[in-house]
Design goal:
Elements (H helix, E strand, L loop, with lengths): L2 H4 L16 E2 L12 H13 L6 E3 L4 H17 L16 H6 L5 E7 L4 E7 L8 H4 L4 H4 L6 H15 L5 E10 L21 H4 L1 E11 L5 E12 H4 L5 H9 L3 H6 L6 H9 L6
Antiparallel strand pairs: 1-5, 2-4, 3-4, 3-7, 5-6, 6-7
Helix pairs in contact: 10-12
Length: about 280
């Protein structure tokens, strides 16, 4: 998909701070399907075939809601004329979230509500952005986001309320951006993938990585499916489509802890100046 197809609203709103920035989504637009589907699913299969992978984790008891997820996915794909092939899993004894994750380009995380909090009970995450599903499974929203500086103070309670208030069948989405030094879909936690200093050619050597995140409240379960579709473009490819002044301001004004979390601290001043001077055209 092209950058304009994915980003249908302003991406930056300086100064940089955590915002939910969710928007409603219609059911026909829930899953993103494009020409990269075959390559993405093949990469998922290769990742899941690795016996040491951390891409699939499921807690006992997550099967009923995960089965509802699988049925939603299969119905969506069938309605759009997309053949469903679970690839490396024959389905016998496989967890439903595994089967669902193998046929969509999104990574899938199932959040279920218990008597205390929303908790991650099952997931298929082949394309993480510097985190590990194995470290997050079983965690609450607060626990999952514990490494995110300022999350609890800025939006933690807001996220909890949003999850609690989602109506059955409702779909919402948001976009999260990061700059990385690698175009790979899979960026595990041990590989932070961001230059410590300004690269010689930022237009070529930096990449705009977007997470198109969706939330879908299941109809008959106290559960929400969190989908993450990864898109990556060379920075120079999208620079003409970005408001460079707002992008520079967002980078320049980021609080130090957020800049470090986003791996911007070592290059953000030079990058902001480069953007202000026209970026690739400078």
């Amino acid at each position: 998909m092209s950058f304009p197809e994915v980003v249908d609203h302003p991406l930056f709103s300086p100064p940089l701070r955590w915002r939910m920035a969710v928007r409603s989504r219609e059911a026909p637009d829930w899953l993103q399907i494009d020409d990269a589907r075959e390559a993405d699913l093949a990469l998922k299969e290769a990742t899941l075939a690795d016996p040491d992978n951390d891409a699939l984790r499921c807690l006992p008891g997550s099967e009923p809601a995960s089965q509802a997820v699988l049925e939603l996915v299969e119905a969506e794909l069938a309605g759009r004329g997309v053949a469903v092939d679970p690839g490396g899993s024959d389905g016998a004894g496989a967890h439903p979230i595994d089967l669902a994750g193998r046929v969509v380009q999104e990574d899938l995380c199932l959040m279920e509500r218990d008597e205390r909090a929303w908790r991650l009970t099952a997931g298929s995450v082949c394309f993480p952005t510097r985190w590990s599903l194995a470290d997050k499974i079983g965690g609450t929203l607060a626990g999952i986001h514990e490494p995110v500086p300022g999350y609890a103070a800025d939006i933690g309670a807001q996220v909890d309320r949003f999850f609690d208030r989602m109506a059955p069948g409702a779909i919402a989405y948001r976009i999260n951006w990061s700059l990385v030094g690698d175009s790979a879909r899979r960026l595990p936690a041990r590989n932070r993938q961001a230059p410590e200093t300004m690269p010689t050619d930022p237009a070529r050597d930096l990449f705009m990585r977007l997470e198109h995140q969706t939330l879908r409240r299941l109809e008959d379960h106290a559960a929400i499916l969190f989908g993450i579709r990864i898109h990556v473009w060379p920075l120079g490819e999208v620079l003409e489509l970005l408001p460079a002044a707002e992008f520079a301001s967002e980078i320049h004004t980021a609080p130090p802890d957020i800049a470090r979390y986003k791996n911007l601290e070592g290059l953000r001043e030079e990058l902001a100046v480069w953007l202000e001077r026209g970026g690739a055209g400078a």
